[in-house]
Amino acid sequence: MGKTLAGKVALVTGGSRGIGAATARALAEAGADVAIGYAASADKAEAVVRELRESGARAGAYRADQGRPAEVAELVATVARDFGRLDILVNNAGVLAPGAVDDIGADLAALDRQLTVNLGGVTAGIRAAAPLLGEGGRIITIGSNLGVRVGRSGMADYAATKAALVAYSKGAAWDLAPRGITVNVVQPGSVDTDMNPADGPRADEQRAGNAMGRYGRPEEIAAAVAFLAGPDASFITGTTLDIDGGYLA
């Protein structure tokens, strides 16, 4: 990969593991300096930062609770101050709290936090970043193919947060297009991460549900994010890119 992002600064939320960590690596490989946000895994975040620095990128880790809009805004402002600018925002942080809508024993607090983190954290990040981004700025949000087709029980609340991200991003794309800023959503399917491991209890069901019959790798999602962050994606905005092995085919 060429250094198409040389001179750019990227912030990846939820960057300490999984898709977020893979995305941080891909952006750094393309030449960007990378800040990662994390909620709890300080050791993992610092390990990613060390790896990025060893590759030659300037990097840093910042703790922020994506369920608290003020912390999200502070994260964005701090990264822009410490790195001198902000060019790319990748909204990757998210949580999963399953629960059927007719389950009277469901953890309502967990479901409420899921909404606050998955949707509120993204909207807060976009609002904070938008005034700081210049011509060629990029906003990329990690959604989910479940926001289009649920296909299983207990996922209504989670799917709703991911579907809402698409609508918000389409609106934001219109708002920011006059300034040359693009806004897009990547919708992964089943990807082998800590949140949804390929050896998990419903893994065989998920593999059988897509045309390719396998889990994706975090690096496969990261490659798409890096493309959308680059100059060749300058005419792509307000769209969704499904990377799900054919689940939605």
Automatic annotation (TrEMBL):
Which stretches does the entry tag as region Disordered? 188-208
Q: Which Gene3D superfamilies match?
A: NAD(P)-binding Rossmann-like Domain (3.40.50.720)
Q: Which family does it belong to?
A: Belongs to the short-chain dehydrogenases/reductases (SDR) family.
Name-wise, this protein is SDR family oxidoreductase
